[in-house]
Structure formats: structure tokens, C-alpha cells
Amino acid sequence: MFVPLLLSLAYPASILALSIRPRNGALPSWEPTITWSERIASDHPRIQRGFITVPMDYHHVEKGRVELGMVRFSTVGKAPLGTLFYNPGGPGGVASEDILAAAQDEHYFGPPVLENYDILGLDPRGVGMTQPVKCNPDLFNERVSSFPTTEDDLRKLITHNEAFGKSCFDLTGPLLNHLDTVNLAKDMECVRRALNSDEKLNFFGYSYGSQVGLTYAELYPENVNRMALDGILDHTQDETTTLNDEATAYEMTLDRFFAWCNTTIDCTLHGQNAAGIFQSILRKADEQPIPAPGCSSTGESACRSDVTAEEIRTKIQNLLLFQNATDKYPGWDLLSRAMAETAEGNATLLSSPLATSESFEAYAGLAIGCQDWLHESTTLADL
Predict the structure, then answer these.
(1) Could you report the per-residue pLDDT of 92-123, keeping only the tens digit for each?
(2) Sign of the four-CA dihedral 27, 33, 35, 36
(3) Contact, 49 vs 73, CB < 8 A?
């Protein structure tokens, strides 16, 4: 029914070609420290913002340092069980933002967790409160098909991404080569030691965050206390198999979304054959991009003025993540409305974001993903 999303994510279209770092958890002998800053007036009273300085390259500490940001939400429990590290996945998810949101909504983590743990969101390298990844926004915004059907299409995609990757290195500097998950796990160990070297690590991560937890456990098994992982990523697979698994999972979720539309009036397309409407949208967008009149080319919410079929396939991934909306994430009701409006000729809600500056949140996720995998797919047949 649904064209797989594999090639919309494929890292043979990678911006970099870097191998996975050695599985060596050794840290420098120095003792890391966290600097807690004054609370911002709008923050919840139990919110703390902090920063820690760590080596950019743990194998060559003389090459410089990088400052990482974090947010901690303190528990009100009388007998706390320690600190719970949290990572929302991505890669490139901003943990600090989720902690700030959780402080305003106790259902985010749930009372039992909040009553027993301080929740800490450490922003990975290049993300959120840390030094950002910088890239050329014009290159990021260029339309190059992520669904190559010929070797020539694939070469064009790789050439484009190589140019984009070079722009990221030129603008970000050597930090770009040290954004991988192994380095993040070592950063977490620095934070754990700085908080309380006698306390073992508690961790909750979902989606790509599961890889963060698994990597930490592999490097520091003796330092793990409690760990909860959801939507576990299998890093023992090659990149193409992993992406195919992810595409399959999204397709299954899309089918569940269609079934949900058939059974609930909360779906804007209830009783209208949502699956058929979606296929019709893709056919129309393949013939000619569908206008997105609500988009602007400037500002933080800039998005494309029209939408192609492959951009629609990519965009709906985030809209499928949560059936019920949260303060931060949309739910399936918005996806159903987006499909309905697109079917009527207004694809604003399914438009792709435009980068308007050298610092854009999507850059870091691309760089991290590229460094975490070996890139052995070089031809269309490899995909």
C-alpha cells in the first residue's frame, strides 16, 4: 500500500563518511565539574540549568574542550532514588527542552518518576544548549531527490550531500568529527561523576536514545543502575537493514493510523477512506508539487511554498510518533487534518522546514547519524 520510507532517511546520502569510534570508555584523570547558572525567571522553581566542559576528543584531550548544557528538574520526594538521565532520541533530540516541558506538565514523566528522581536532560554535542552544528542553509534547502531510481540520481544525491557536509565542517570546525554516540556516552559518564561519583547511572531513552543507553552500558557496565529503553535500535545491523526496519515500522504505524481513522470521529478523515485519500495525495504531488500557501520563507517556522510526494512521505514520520498529542508533540488528529487540507490543495501542514541560518536544529541529527554508522552502500543495488 505504502511506498517505504527507507530512501528518505538513507545515509548513503550521508553528509560525512566517518567510522564508529573505538569502544573504549577510558576517561581523562581529571575530575569534571558542573557549573549551575542562575534560574531564569520563567523557569519552574525546581529547574536548574548547568554546563560542563569535556574534552572534544577523549583520545587527544589536548585538541580542545567543548561545553555541554543540561537542565535538571529536582524531585520533591522525601527519599529520592537519585538522578535519572533522559535522552529523547533523534538523533539530535533536545533533552533540555523536554525537561523544561516536563516541569510544566507532571504527566510528561508521571508522578511516580518525579517523586523519586531528579530528571536530567543533557544536550548532546551540537544540540540545544551546546555549541551548535553550523552548515550552509542554501545547500540544505536545495531540492535533491532522496528516492533515487538510477545510478545517476544516486550520484547527484551523494555529490550534493558531500558539498553540504563540507560546508558543515568549514563552518563548525573540528567538533563536527566528534559528535557520535560513543562520545555522548563518555560525556554522560563525566556528568555522572560530576554529580556524584558514588551513584550509578539511571537512564531512560527511547528511539535513538536507546542507542545512547546501550552504548553507555557497553562502555561502563559497572556503572549502570536502572535503565529503561523503548523502541530499541539494533546497532549490530548494517545501515541499510536498520533503515529498512525503521521504514517497515513506520509503514505499520501508518496502517494503524488508517485503522484509527476508520474507528474514531477524532480523525478528520473519518469514514472517508483515509488510505485512499493519502495515495491520491501522493499521486497528485508526484505530478506537480502541492501548494503550501501558509508557509513563509523567513522566520523560525519557515517552510517550503509547495510540497512534493517524497517530502510528504518524510514529513508524516514525525506526525505518526504519538497517537495522542502532548505539549511538545502533535498527535494523529493533526495528521488527519493535514491530510484532509492537503487533499483540498493546501499542503501547509505537510510542508518541509527551511533552514534560514547557519545554525538549524536539523543539522546536528544528520551529522550524528552519519558518524554512528559505517557507510558501505555505494551503489543503488546496495540499497
Answers:
(1) 999 999 999 888 887 788 888 989 999 999 99
(2) positive
(3) no
Quote the CA–CA distance of 83 and 101 in Å, as a whole number: 18
Q: Kindly state the DSSP code that residue 100 receives in the 8-state scheme.
A: H
**Alpha-carbon dihedral sign for residues 259, 261, 263, 266:** positive
Measure Cα distances from 349 to 112, 268, 290, 293 in Å: 36, 14, 11, 10
Check: CB of residue 56 under 8 Å from CB of residue 175.
yes
- The rounded distance, in Å, linking the Cα atoms of 339 and 21 is 42
Strands of the sheet with 47-55, listed across from one edge: 34-36, 47-55, 65-73, 118-122, 83-87, 201-206, 224-230
Angle value at C-alpha 20, between 55 and 8, nearest 5 degrees? 115
- Cβ-count burial 139-166 (b if 16+ within 10 Å, e if not): bbbeeebbbbeeeeebeebbebbeebbe
Instruction: Average the pLDDT over 204-232 and give the result.
Output: 93
Asked if 161 and 139 touch (Cβ cutoff 8 Å), the reply is: no
The structure's pTM equals 0.86
Rounded Cα distance between 71 and 94, Å, is 10
CB atoms within 10 A of CB 131: 17
